[in-house]
Amino acid sequence: MPQIDPAFVATSHAVGDLTLCHVRLQDDARYPWLVLIPKGEGLREIEDLTAGDRAELMEEIVRVGQALRVLGEALGAPPEKLNVGALGNVTPQLHVHVVGRRRDDPAWPGPVWGFGAAEPYPADVLAYATETTRRALDI
Amino acid sequence: MPQIDPAFVATSHAVGDLTLCHVRLQDDARYPWLVLIPKGEGLREIEDLTAGDRAELMEEIVRVGQALRVLGEALGAPPEKLNVGALGNVTPQLHVHVVGRRRDDPAWPGPVWGFGAAEPYPADVLAYATETTRRALDI
User: Fold this and answer.
1) Is there a contact between A34 and A100 (Cβ–Cβ < 8 Å)?
2) Which residue in A86, A98, A125, B33 has its CB near the most CB atoms, within 10 A?
3) Region A35-58: what's the mean pLDDT?
4) Domain count, chain B
5) How far off is chain A from B94, nearest CA to CA, in Å?
6) Is residue B50 in a domain?
7) CB contact under 8 A, B87 and A83
8) Contact (CB<8Å) A83/B89
9) Is residue B114 part of a domain?
């Protein structure tokens, strides 16, 4: 696991590592939501990555989106739309959110960031969601 | 110009075309904000693009982010952070927002999407902003 900002530890759980990114499950049962954190040091903007790493990041975004479809299905709420966001206004370490959205989710059609309070997963659901994501990502 | 959803026409102005994407300036003087619209038909998710087009999209996101730095500087408010988002909950045609953010902008540190009402550029500033962006993108 790379050096990651403590803010990620407080709000998400480690799933595993892809080639470029560490993957975390956001601890918010309102939406299937994964966070990709590129493993290099001192990264803040996408442009800080090499072109090769940027292409890899894009492929990992797609791969994580496909895992979110599996996760949402497993949790009984398949995503209807994927949302991808690289913000970093609050936590500057470069990271990309990939979120499965549905017309019946609480923030729809607005963005999830900053919307209401997270609803942590019950422990058994968290374990199931993490394992389901790991299998979907084959990690 | 590709077939674009009328929602884009109502909220933004054409800047020009890169290899993959049509580029538009969001008509909102609160933030320097460009929208990339990949030119293919029927695209809704990033995964709908080929891997080659996805890598190109990533490079165009970076290029547009650099143009936003030039634009923000020209308008007297250089971006301190770039925000990148592909949502599409309201307008399903695939598009990517790239926004220059500052600690003194009205939505900081929250996302810009769905925050308050757009403040259209005065006509002379719009013309200057569009031309500045075009030059920065060399299109």
Assistant:
1) no
2) A98
3) 97
4) 1
5) 11
6) yes
7) yes
8) yes
9) yes
Q: What is the ipTM of this complex?
A: 0.96
The number of angstroms, rounded, from the C-alpha of B13 to the middle of its chain's C-alpha atoms is: 10
Whether the model clears a pTM of 0.90, i.e. scores above it, the answer is yes
Overall average pLDDT of the B70-82 stretch? 98
Using DSSP's 3-state secondary structure scheme, residue B23 falls into: strand
Residue B43 lies in domain: 6-131
**Closest alpha carbon to B44 in B88, B4, B103:** B88
Helix (H) or strand (E) holding A136: helix A123-137
A115: left (phi over 0), alpha (psi -120 to 50) or beta: beta
CATH number at residue B110: 3.30.428.10
- Cα–Cα distance for residue pair A57/A38, rounded to 1 Å: 8
Q: Across the strands, what pairs with B23?
A: B16, B36
Instruction: Give the pLDDT score at B50.
Output: 98
Length of chain B in residues, anyone?
139
pLDDT band at B86 (very low <50, low <70, confident <90, very high): very high
Nearest-Cα residue of chain A relative to residue B52: A55
B100 Cβ contact partners less than 8 Å away, ≥ 6 residues apart: B31, B32, B33, B65, B68, B69, B71, B72, B77, B78, B79, B81, B82, B83
